[in-house]
Structure formats: structure tokens, C-alpha cells
Amino acid sequence: MVAAYLADIEQLLDVQRREAALRDALDLPSLAVALADPRLRSSREQVKTWCQEWIRPPGAERDAHGLDYEHLARNTAERVAQTAEPEGVPMRALRRLQLRRHARTAPRGFRARRAEDLSPRDSEAFDMCTALTEAARRWYARSACHDPTVQANLARLAVLR
């Protein structure tokens, strides 16, 4: 379910639907925080903490593509905090995640391609989406796949209609 959600974001980027991709990507921190909570709740403060922990890989100043993680993490955390619910269950985001359980997964190794002629706004959206999907992958691989609460919540979402 999480893999399909992340693949959908990358496919939206690939077909240049950056606003839709950004909307879904900005939900990733709220989803991660909610999935780690037994009651599926999240708060802005928890979302900001998640961004600070997972967006910037340990020891990374810039990646091979020139992403400035410090700047990107700060801007993304601010943007996510603006869109996150003050406190509660992020129902819209959880519903979109739940709907991905029927989606086909993109082939392994799929990566959205960055167009060279992006406007500054589109470039920032692409970078935010990329940073958030990479952060979500790190979070899932290093933490969530071993967390019984996250796995129980994903199972609950998979069977709820």
C-alpha cells in the first residue's frame, strides 16, 4: 500500500502533474505519524519532528543531483506544517492511502525523470516530492516495516472499506 502510494507520486511527477504529486507527497509525514499511532492521530509538532528526522539523510549536505537537504528539509517542514491538521486523524490522507491498495505497483527501479526546463516553482515542487518520497522510503525500511503499530494500522486500512 505504501509502495503503491509512493509509486503514484513518482508517476504523477513523470507525467508532469506536479500539483497533484505535491499534494500527495505533502501528506506523507502526516501519514507516517498517524500510522505509528495506535489511534491514527497526528499533530503538527509530530509532523515537523518527522520531517526533521527523515527528510535529510544522516551526513547529507547535498545529494548527487545537487539537492540542498538543509534548505529543502526546512522549507518542506514549514509547508507540511501549514497543510497538516492541527491535531487529529488525517482522514483525507489515510483514505487516499487506503485506495492505493488496489493500485498496481510501478516496476522496480522506476524513478520520475526531472525535466531540464522547469520553472523555479515546478523545480521546488519536484524537489519536495522527491525528498518526501525518499524520506518515506527510508522511514518505512528502517522503522515502519518493523513497527507492530504501523503494520497493524496498515492491515486495518487494507480491510476497512
What can you tell me about this protein's structure?
By secondary structure, the chain is mostly helical. The chain has eight helices and two strands. A two-stranded antiparallel ribbon has the order 1-2. The longest helix has 23 residues. The mean pLDDT is about 80.
How much of the residues is beta strand, in percent?
under 5%
Overall shape: globular
Structural Rg:
15 Å
Major sheet characteristics: 2 strands, antiparallel
Q: TL;DR of this structure?
A:
This protein is mainly α and 161 residues long. 62% of the residues lie in helices and 2% in strands.
SSE layout:
Elements (H helix, E strand, L loop, with lengths): L1 H13 L3 H9 L1 H8 L6 E2 H11 L14 H15 L3 E2 L2 H9 L20 H23 L5 H12 L2
List its traits.
161 residues, mainly alpha, two-stranded antiparallel sheet, 2% strand
